[in-house]
Design goal:
By secondary structure, the protein is α+β, with helices and mostly antiparallel strands. It has helices at about 25-30, 85-95, 105-115, 125-130, 140-165; strands at about 5-10, 10-20, 50-55, 55-60, 70-75. It has 2 domains: about 1-80, Beta-grasp domain (Ubiquitin-like (UB roll), Roll); about 80-165, DNA polymerase, domain 1, CATH 1.10.150.120. The structure holds FE2/S2 (inorganic) cluster (2 copies). One FE2/S2 (inorganic) cluster binds near residues 44, 48 and 61.
Length: about 180
């Protein structure tokens, strides 16, 4: 027997029939073909299946799809695009934060939540947050460096946006922006 639910994934509503026992990770991968969310263990150990539910990072192998009914879900496919990478994706590339890449989507989704809730996160806080995400390749050093680099990029972007919005940055009406030029 199946149950009708609607999952809003990366901004798109997906009405779907699921078995009550179906895990969210299996529905994402098998029914909706969103295979960027990985399965490493199926027992809530590895974090490869991490997605955002209402902005909060969650291991999708620990959630029944019916529990996510009506909720907004973000997967790695919704974070950036090939020609417009999210700062975390760009930083993982630039800092060599991955080798085989199996753990990477889950870690990036976890870090998305981390930087949203704590933009000035410290190295110790990043390492603590990584406790739920296993990587068998990298030794974690470059992952930490990538998250720190992304945090710096996102801080700079916010500062630029604030400067652009502040009245002091606006030129007076009818005046050139840079006097004497
Ligand atoms: S597959 Fe979900 S934690 Fe490993
Ligand atoms: S890069 Fe291979 S498991 Fe992390």
């Amino acid at each position: 027997m199946t149950h009708p639910i609607t999952l809003t994934i990366n901004g798109v509503a997906h009405p779907i029939e699921v078995e009550p026992r179906a895990l969210l990770v299996h529905v994402l991968r098998d029914d909706l073909n969103l295979t960027g969310t990985h399965i490493g263990c199926d027992t809530s150990q590895c974090g490869a299946c991490t997605v955002l539910i209402e902005g909060q990072s969650v291991k999708s192998c620990t959630v029944l799809a019916v529990q996510a009914d009506g909720q907004a879900i973000t997967t790695i496919e919704g974070l950036g695009s090939a020609d417009r990478l999210h700062p975390l994706q760009a930083a993982f590339w630039e800092k060599h934060g991955l080798q085989c890449g199996f753990c990477t989507p889950g870690i990036i989704m976890m870090a998305t939540d981390l930087l949203a809730t704590n933009p000035d996160t410290t190295e110790a806080q990043i390492r603590h947050a990584l406790e739920g995400n296993l990587c068998r390749c990298t030794g974690y050093q470059n992952i930490v460096a990538a998250i720190q680099a992304a945090a710096a990029t996102m801080r700079a972007t916010r500062q630029q946006a604030r400067a652009a919005e502040s009245p002091a940055a606006q030129s007076p009406v009818g005046q050139p922006a840079a006097a004497g030029v």
